[in-house]
Design brief:
51 helices
């Protein structure tokens, strides 16, 4: 030590003594402890010592562990120094701070930010084991006392070598025993991880401890350089005792601008091939930062104080990860040159979509390596070559890449550089590998480019399509044998290759074995034949010499030619090439094959257009040949019919009978000819007309583009009518009856363009001829036109037909009602009277039964009273005989057994009382539970299950409809209109649908239905297979349509079982505390709630394409709307819909699925379902070859669960969904979208009993105290969020403001106020009735006048006058509308009113331009119409003000008026009843837009009929008797009604004058009019299927 050093050392000691006194104060002791105890691994200081040795340029180091202490030695060139303690700050900045200054300081080391340096905080960890570290080197010998005070030692260490530095740490720590210190350090020395690997100088670390010893050494090979990367092969040796291990690796290094080195190391196995090894990240030594990477990395990271973690927030560390990941990617090019890259590189690189490092800190490695593989020619390819992405093709299986060489692949894909990549790895081996290498999609809705390859290649769908005849022709037979062997092992592929040119014929050309024609295969390649002159193609005999190839060829079906082969290969081509035709020979062969082969339809389709059928005409005796469908079979009627047309072609039967002589064979001949298309009815011809000549003649629409007109006429009818006689007339009439659809004949077509392609119909020339010509013989013996007589006035010999009667325009006949037709069946009045009495008695009995069922009251029931009633019944049952069992019953009618009947009644009543008692008990449980607790929901669900119709789930239910109409051109979707009873939304979940078409003659035809969708009070049905033309042609003859189905499965029971399974959800007391974070979207009507949801989904997927969504809705309709909106926003989103098809547009996209498996869910972005499926729907899974199932709500990978229309969703369903899905995945995000001001969930409890409970309007918004739309009144939990949608896009401001003020605190903005067009223009004439956007109509209400009273229909209500008035308004609107497209909604609060409106509108036959939808308010939620009629009639027992009445609910009015886009008409008995909600709506309109004018219904009648009492004066209303027999009424509205049925007959009256308008009667003979004497019958409405009081 020099004199100067001695001075500074002494000053330093004095300075540190002062500091030590401060540290030793009680208030400062924590600082010392925090420094010492930073490390969870206290022996970590060993790494610090090694680092300091490396910084001192030591090459060797050693540890000697004794029972008293630890010695550490190294041969470093840099020795200890000391500097002036007064200039430490400046020295530190200049990096000249003395080592002794540093080692005796706290947080004042001489380390720089990105290197370890000397003696930082890490060295202080030695004070866990010692109080006085000793340091010896050539210049200084000192110890450290009191944590920081240097004390000079008098003597050097005796055994210290020259130039050697020695540290000695005596185990003199009071809190740490020497034994514990020895044990800790020994354990650490044995487990050092590559201590020399990333140190630039230190090559050797040895240690010994009594009997234990070990060493760590590093052997370097000569480094190499590749651009700025230094790489070398290293060998690392480790010996612990006698056990030695060796690791080999390639280390790749770069330096930063500050000259700090960072490295990536790839390990090698015993064969010097890359092998995966995972280690934590290194900063010279291992940290505790896991990487999940299969190689090692090192960089000078900035570490946490404990030196175990990497600072995430430091920009330096982020930069280092970027540099390391780029180095790893760039190293791949060097590994390629070192021949170390092959298919097993996937074991090394990060290909899995997992978390690399905590919070994806090392995720950049995944991205940069993947990008390198995309952009460089580095992908391992077949034959030890490499390919770039544009030339890379990946086979589905290694077998495929093994079969086709790279050269063959290049020829197939027409890319000379194409190569098989990853050829030893099948594309289907590992899903994560497949996603990494491929990850593309060729689906039209989800098209994505593959990640690393040009294309994946499978054999059946890719290679098979690329194989051409030239390719096969160029291949050797040796390769073809391998190819056929490959095919023979894959039978599922063989059908496709039957028609591919994969064989060589005898000329060496590549040919297919078969040819497909109309779905049938025909052989075109055959086994070699004996005849040398054969015209058949035969297979190359050389191929047959290989045994396996021969077996394959024969198994494929290649054989010697048959008669069918002769026809197909030799005869039919003659007709295509105008070859020489031997008509008789060919006909014989055709006929023989067809007859002997089982009369195949496919064969007929091959030959039906060939000219080989012999025919003659009456013009000469020459026999010609022609096409079958241009020739007639010579029946007596046809021959007579065509006498006036001698050029008509008839089959030359004499020619055929010359060689077909047996009568049985001649009948088969006839069948053959008819199958070919020979005619038995006159041909209907289509001819094109000149548009410019015909358009004005038929008053056709103007066309701005091409215009085409096509007329229809019947062959020979013109000539026949010119030469009419009675026999010819009857023949023509008979032919007309046999045509399947007369409209096809009677309608001509105009195809034109006006803004879009359009089509309209007008009368064909045949229609005009048949209506205007005198060709029918009357019973008076005169030939007349149809309009001159009734059909009953025809001469005998014409069969009656209502369709012909209507179309040809006969005079109308009186039509009997159904009851009159039944009465006419009896031969005497006495029999008719007996029948009437029997029916009357039966009806009275049913009436009494119905009255008994409904005679209960709303008073509460005492459980004890019920107990007593049940006990009394049990006592009574003991005194009577028990009902007979099924086995005791016989087929004969037994005597009436009073005891037995009484016993039955007692049993039934006992069951009812037991159920009622259980409901009382459950209601008590509900009231005694904390509201919305688990126990509350448990009791609530149990109560609901007692109302389920379990006993009916196996019974078929039935609804009949008046009409069936095609809905889509594919003949799979049809709309059933005019329902006989209310259509519940639950029908969409029903099973076993069967639709019966009932025709006017009583015949039935059943069609199978796959699914149904409710469209208001119409039903859209979906048939899996299209209906045949024959069925469609008879739609006009349908009398009614019946649909039978099995009701919905017991959904509530399934929910209850799931709810009470503690594996699915946990119990809770307070719902506000138990339910997870919810993100609310509050969306009033027309604010685009669903659009907002779908945009959110799209935005999230744009940021993270792997996000998974589950969307749950209360109805199929709502689920379909979500899917449609998603497709509109982004068709590439992969969504599925759990359901049978319910929407034709969605069905075309293939979105519907009935099953799901966990593999497919990996690729699906969005799963949409009704919420009712959630408790029971199961996902199929497979693991280790075993199949298993698990519930949808147990699927763990849904990131977001969205509830659309949540306010309509049953609280029991949505609560279960949230709690179950949250238990499965606590990280799930829940989005709740809805509007509590609209329709609440429908509770499955009778309305009368529901009045005793307080949960009829419950929804999740109400449960979470979120009902108001006003943000100032909204109170949500801190963990919840809410988004209020405050701009409505649907309604014009005059309508939008009404529901904004009614329910949304006047906060809604109206988009159409500034950004949208004005309302649609009403027809000018209609403005005489309705001229304002919002109209109020006062309807009369008088319980003493049948037409004006509110009637009861089972448990629903209707107002007859209101229904008739609205129907007449709409019919008038339709008549004066000039082809403008309109949608009109008829909204009623009660089912009966909605059904009555629907029936009336259906019977009026409104045109296609005006779409009318009638439904309840509940059924209309989510819909919108141009015009809305809100028929606000009260019910029959609560006129106003009753809190339980439906019309006392604000949401009824909110939903009803908010459906209107442009016009709203509210019909209400203003004069008779004061309704606060209607008044509020009226005042709102007045305050915003001026005075409201309330129209009187009689003013509307005056405008429509020129008579303000027209409907009353032309109505007859009476009770509905048990038997109703009545004829044609002179009243326009003939009505019979009671509490269980209503019949209405409508009769049109002639020439009704209105204000300047003439409404023409249906009695006028207009084209295609219904000529039923003006009588229309609205079918009986049967509501016996109603659940009592259901909303």
């Amino acid at each position: 030590m020099t004199e100067q050093q001695q001075i500074w050392f002494d000053k330093l000691a004095k300075d540190r003594e002062d500091s030590a006194k401060t540290l030793e104060k009680p208030s400062m002791r924590g600082i010392k402890n925090s420094v010492v105890e930073k490390y969870s691994d206290q022996a970590h200081f060993i790494y610090e010592l090694l680092q300091n040795a490396n910084d001192a340029k030591a090459t060797k180091s050693s540890f000697q562990l004794t029972t008293d202490g630890l010695y550490f030695r190294h041969n470093g060139e840099i020795l200890f120094s000391v500097s002036n303690p007064e200039t430490e700050d400046q020295d530190k900045e200049n990096n000249t701070l003395g080592h002794i200054n540093s080692i005796t300081a706290i947080a004042n080391s001489n380390k720089t930010e990105s290197s370890i340096g000397k003696f930082g905080v890490g060295f202080k960890a030695v004070f866990q084991y010692t109080e006085t570290p000793h340091i010896y080197d050539p210049y200084f010998q000192f110890r450290i006392d009191r944590f920081i005070v240097p004390v000079k030692l008098d003597n050097d260490l005796a055994d210290r070598q020259k130039d050697e530095t020695v540290f000695y740490f005596p185990f003199n720590k009071a809190e740490m025993s020497a034994e514990k210190a020895h044990s800790d350090i020994l354990e650490k020395l044995k487990k050092l991880v590559f201590p020399t690997l990333f140190l630039s100088n230190l090559q050797e670390v040895k240690w010994n401890a009594n009997s234990d010893a070990g060493e760590y050494t590093k052997k370097n090979n000569k480094p190499k350089q590749a651009d700025d990367i230094t790489y070398e092969k290293l060998e690392l040796y480790q010996q612990i005792g006698l056990q030695q291990t060796k690791e080999k690796l390639y280390l790749f290094s770069r330096s930063t601008e500050e000259n700090h080195s960072y490295s990536i190391g790839f390990f090698l196995d015993e064969k010097d091939k890359l092998t995966p090894k995972q280690f934590s990240a290194f900063c010279f030594f291992p940290t505790k930062e896991t990487t999940n990477l299969n190689f090692i990395l090192h960089a000078p990271f900035l570490l946490t104080d404990s030196r175990e973690g990497i600072h995430r927030s430091k920009e330096h560390n982020t930069k280092m990860v970027e540099l390391l990941s780029q180095l790893a990617a760039d190293s791949l090019l060097i590994l390629k040159e070192l021949k170390l890259i092959d298919d097993e590189i996937l074991d090394i690189i990060p290909y899995k979509n997992i978390e690399y490092g905590h919070n994806d800190f090392f995720d950049d490695f995944y991205q940069k390596i993947k990008q390198k593989l995309k952009t460089e020619e580095i992908l391992p390819a077949k034959d030890k070559t490499f390919a770039s992405k544009r030339n890379a093709y990946w086979a589905d299986s290694p077998d495929l890449a093994n079969l086709f060489s790279n050269e063959q692949l290049a020829e197939l894909v027409k890319n000379e550089n194409a190569k098989w990549v990853f050829s030893t790895i099948g594309r289907t081996r590992d899903k994560e590998i497949t996603d990494y290498i491929d990850g593309g999609s060729e689906r039209s809705w989800d098209r994505k480019e593959p990640n690393l390859i040009k294309s994946n290649m499978d054999f059946e769908n890719k290679i098979a399509d690329l194989i051409t005849s030239n390719f096969i022709k160029n291949q050797s037979n040796e390769w073809l044998h391998k190819f056929y062997e490959y095919l023979s092992e894959r039978k599922s592929y063989q059908d496709k290759f039957k028609t591919k040119p994969i064989f060589k014929d005898i000329q060496g050309n590549a040919v297919a074995a078969f040819e497909r024609n109309n779905e049938e295969l025909h052989g075109i390649l055959f086994l070699p034949l004996d005849e040398a002159s054969s015209t058949y193609k035969t297979i190359d005999p050389e191929l047959l010499k290989n045994k396996k190839t021969k077996e394959f060829i024969e198994n494929l079906g290649i054989k010697k030619p048959s008669l069918k082969d002769e026809i197909y290969n030799n005869i039919l081509p003659l007709y295509e090439k105008d070859g020489e035709i031997d008509t008789e020979t060919h006909f014989k062969k055709f006929f023989t094959y067809w007859k002997n082969a089982g009369r195949p339809e496919e064969f007929i389709s091959l030959i039906e257009d060939k000219e080989f059928v012999s025919y003659k005409t009456n013009e000469d005796e020459t026999t010609y040949r022609g096409i079958a469908n241009e020739i007639y079979y010579p029946t007596t009627d046809l021959v007579k019919y065509f006498e006036s047309k001698p050029d008509t072609k008839f089959v030359d039967l004499d020619d055929y009978y010359s060689f077909i002589t047996e009568e049985k064979e001649q009948q088969i001949l006839k069948d053959f000819l008819l199958k070919l298309g020979v005619r038995v009815l006159p041909i209907i011809y289509k001819r094109e007309l000149k548009a410019y000549e015909e358009r004005s003649k038929f008053n056709l629409s103007y066309s701005t583009g091409n215009s085409e007109l096509y007329d229809k006429y019947i062959d020979g009818s013109k000539e026949l009518i010119k030469n009419i006689d009675f026999e010819r007339s009857k023949i023509l009439w008979g032919f007309l009856l046999k045509y399947s659809d007369l409209n096809i004949i009677f309608k001509a077509t105009h195809k034109y363009f006006y803004r879009t392609h359009r089509e309209e119909y007008f009368n064909s020339s045949e229609f005009t001829r048949l209506r205007n010509s005198k060709w029918l013989l009357s019973h008076n013996g005169e030939f007349v036109t149809p309009s001159e007589i009734t059909i009953n006035e025809l001469a005998d010999g014409y069969d009656s037909n209502s369709e012909l009667e209507r179309l040809l325009g006969f005079k109308p006949s009186v039509v009997l009602t159904e009851t009159e037709r039944i009465a006419s069946k009896f031969e005497s009045e006495e029999e008719a009277e007996e029948a009437r009495k029997a029916l009357e008695e039966k009806r009275e009995k049913e009436k009494r039964k119905a009255e008994r069922k409904t005679s209960g009251t709303n008073t509460s029931v005492d459980s004890e009273d019920l107990e007593g009633a049940i006990e009394s019944l049990e006592n009574l049952s003991e005194s009577v005989s028990k009902p007979k069992t099924e086995k005791e019953k016989t087929n004969k009618l037994p005597d009436f057994d009073e005891d037995e009947e009484l016993a039955k009644g007692i049993e039934d009543l006992k069951k009812q009382l037991e159920i009622k008692k259980s409901r009382v008990d459950l209601a008590a449980n509900i009231n005694n539970s904390v509201k919305h607790s688990y126990d509350w929901f448990n009791a609530y669900l149990q109560l609901l299950t007692t109302y389920g119709e379990k006993q009916d789930t196996q019974k078929q239910k039935s609804i009949s409809f008046q009409e069936i109409k095609p809905y889509k051109a594919d003949n799979k979707y049809f709309l059933l209109c005019g329902a006989s009873s209310y259509i519940s939304p639950e029908i969409e979940n029903a099973d076993d649908f069967k639709v019966s078409l009932v025709f006017g003659n009583g015949n039935r035809e059943n069609i199978t239905v796959e699914g149904v969708s409710k469209k208001g009070q119409d039903l859209l049905i979906y048939c899996r297979e299209p209906l045949t033309g024959n069925t469609l042609s008879r739609f006009s003859n349908i009398f009614k349509v019946e649909i039978n189905f099995t009701p919905v499965i017991d959904l509530l029971d399934r929910l209850y079982k799931a709810f009470t399974n503690d594996n699915y959800i946990d119990e809770w007391e307070t719902i506000q505390e138990a339910i997870p974070s919810l993100n609310f979207i509050y969306g009033p009507p027309g604010t685009g709630k669903t659009t907002t949801l779908c945009n959110n989904i799209n935005d999230i997927l744009a940021e993270n394409p792997n996000t998974k969504f589950l969307v749950l809705t209360p109805t199929n309709k709502a689920a379909d709307v979500v899917c449609k909106k998603l497709q509109d926003i982004n068709p590439n989103i992969y969504a599925v819909r759990l359901s049978r098809p319910t929407d034709p547009e969605l069905e075309e996209s293939g979105i519907y699925v009935d099953t799901l498996d966990n593999k497919s869910l990996h690729n699906i972005n969005v799963v949409t379902s009704t919420i009712h499926r959630l408790p029971y729907f199961e996902i199929n899974g497979e693991k280790d070859g075993e199949i298993f199932e698990y519930k949808l709500f147990k699927h763990r990978n849904f990131d977001y669960v969205i509830f659309d229309e949540a306010s309509m969703t049953g609280l029991h369903y949505i609560t279960f969904a949230i709690m179950a899905l949250f238990k499965t995945n606590p990280n799930t995000n829940f989005i709740v979208a809805g509007d509590p001001k609209q329709i609440p969930p429908v509770i499955e409890i009778d309305e009368k009993e529901l009045e005793n409970f307080d949960f009829q309007d419950e929804n999740i918004y109400k449960m979470m105290n979120l009902e108001s739309f006003n943000p100032e009144e909204q109170i949500i939990r801190e963990i919840d969020t809410i988004q209020n949608l405050d701009k409505q896009y649907r309604s014009i401001p005059k309508i939008g403001q009404l529901f904004s003020e009614l329910s949304y605190s006047s906060l809604l903005k109206h988009d159409r106020e500034t950004n949208r067009k004005e309302s649609k223009q009403l027809p000018e004439k209609f403005k005489n009735l309705i001229s304002s956007n919002v109209t109020f109509v006062d309807i009369p209400l008088n319980q003493d006048n049948s037409i004006f009273k509110v009637n009861k229909l089972f448990y629903s209500s209707y107002h007859t006058y209101c229904a008739i008035l609205v129907s007449e308004i709409i019919r008038y609107f339709d008549e004066i509308n000039e082809k403008e497209q309109w949608t009109i909604g008829l909204i009623a609060p009660y089912k009966a009113q909605a059904i009555l409106l629907n029936k009336l509108i259906t019977s009026y036959g409104i045109s296609e331009n005006v779409k009318v939808f009638s439904d309840t308010v509940h059924g209309f939620q989510g819909d919108e119409c141009d015009i809305v009629f809100f028929v606000c009639n009260p019910n029959n027992y609560f006129y106003s003000g009753h809190e339980k009445a439906l019309l006392s609910k604000e949401y009824i009015y909110n939903v009803a008026i908010s459906r209107a886009k442009d016009y709203l008409i509210v019909l209400h008995p203003y004069t008779a009843i004061s309704n606060p909600f209607i008044n509020k709506i009226g005042h709102s309109y007045k305050n915003n837009f001026g005075n409201t004018k309330i129209l009187n219904a009689k003013d509307i009648e005056k405008a429509l009929f020129n008579d303000e009492n027209y409907i009353e004066n032309n109505s007859y209303v009476s009770g509905h008797d048990n038997v109703n027999v009545f004829g044609l009424s002179e009243m326009k509205y003939f009505i019979k009604a009671n509490d269980t049925a209503i019949d209405i007959q409508l009769r049109e009256l002639k020439d009704l004058k209105t204000n300047g308008l003439t409404v023409e009667s249906n009695l006028k003979q207009t084209e295609f009019a219904n000529q039923n004497g003006g009588l229309k019958i609205v079918g009986k409405i049967d509501l016996s299927q109603f659940e009592k009081h259901k909303k």
